[in-house]
Amino acid sequence: xxxxxxxxxxxxxxxxxxxxxxxxxxxxxxxxxxxxxxxxxxxxxxxxxxxxxxxxxxxxxxxxxxxxxxxxxxxxxxxxxxxxxxxxxxxxxxxxxxxxxxxxxxxxxxxxxxxxxxxxxxxxxxxxxxxxxxxxxxxxxxxxxxxxxxxxxxxxxxxxxxxxxxxxxxxxxxxxxxxxxxxxxxxxxxxxxxxxxxxxxxxxxxxxxxxxxxxxxxxxxxxxxxxxxxxxxxxxxxxxxxxxxxxxxxxxxxxxxxxxxxxxxxxxxxxxxxxxxxxxxxxxxxxxxxxxxxxxxxxxxxxxxxxxxxxxxxxxxxxxxxxxxxxxxxxxxxxxxxxxxxxxxxxxxxxxxxxxxxxxxxxxxxxxxxxxxxxxxxxxxxxxxxxxxxxxxxxxxxxxxxxxxxxxxxxxxxxxxxxxxxxxxxxxxxxxxxxxxxxxxxxxxxxxxxxxxxxxxxxxxxxxxxxxxxxxxx
Length: 474
Description:
Layout: H1 11-21, H2 23-43, E1 45-46, E2 49-50, H3 64-75, H4 79-92, H5 95-107, H6 109-116, H7 134-171, E3 176-181, E4 184-190, H8 191-210, E5 215-216, H9 226-231, H10 237-247, E6 251-252, H11 263-292, E7 295-297, H12 316-339, H13 349-354, H14 357-376, E8 378-380, H15 382-390, H16 397-409, H17 418-426, H18 433-441, H19 447-455, H20 465-472
Parallel strand pairs: 5-6
Antiparallel strand pairs: 1-2, 3-4, 7-8
Domain Adenylosuccinate lyase PurB C-terminal: 342-462
Family: Belongs to the lyase 1 family. Adenylosuccinate lyase subfamily.
Organism: Xylanimonas oleitrophica
């Protein structure tokens, strides 16, 4: 009955994101931020951030038991609480105001008193959402949500995929394979080296995502601390804001309009989208290797490849991944482009846009899952790759003409026009082992060079491919 595939057909693959990027997760994060702001105003500490307490004169000093009670509000935010908050929002027609009222209900004397006995929490009720605009709560909530989704869900899955490709690269580092540039036979490589290129590219993007900053602000309706300074003029409010934001584990943004500028989001999404596009390249390359027979797919017992052709084992994991990566990139690109712009001090385009962060990461996570499963079902057909190499001896025209150039520079006579002579021999023609060796024998190369070339085969002409895998995938 789900409208979208991520909440229906593919729910299992993306379920871990629900705890970070769903509507319920957003409201839980809002409650968390509101609670921690209340603790900061009363006690002057949140996480590693601290300032002289109380921030607001007369605010009660909260006990450890009272703080624990407050922090249980987001920690126990479940189905009943979701329904209660939804009912409040029906009355307020404002999501963040509903969160404020939801928390205040739990600070009421009868509720807090029943849990704690004697408590000062009712006296702190009006410090909930003190001097805040909705965006003060929302920007911090989204930063915490995205950071959690990236660090706890997306990055581990993406890293496991990159490591899986790297392991395959090591396994096949010495398996020779004919390259194809422009779709045509080209200088041989190894299967492992080509996989290593992709693993290296994926890991570079992961390194960028790992270093992402998640920015936050808490500075009022237009970023001036206007309400703060009028209500409590003797406080260094930027210092309080910085301590609070950094205490949440975020990077403080000191200069904003009403909204945090979202530039950090655009940066993260661009890096994730670039990872997606590299993964898309991997999926299309592997799909092509399958079509060439270089990879065979291990059939799944009971599975059907075609409704009419029983012999088929379709590369559906990689095709599914391609489509989901394209959808993810489209969403990430839109998020990046839209979120960095806001009319004057605030418009609401970012509000509905950010509600699509979950689908953007969901389609990427689904693609990662499909590629990982697809790679596990592959078997490298080294015999077919060897046959392909043996049918393309003309690719040795490159090393022969390069050896002739080096010999010419060393003063060996008769080495004129090496490229042109190999071109005449090989271009548009099939050359077998006998013809290539016969040609080399007529060149008048020094004996050691001639012997080296006579021993060379397309399968052995892989340069430092195996070593490159060993040296640069550490």
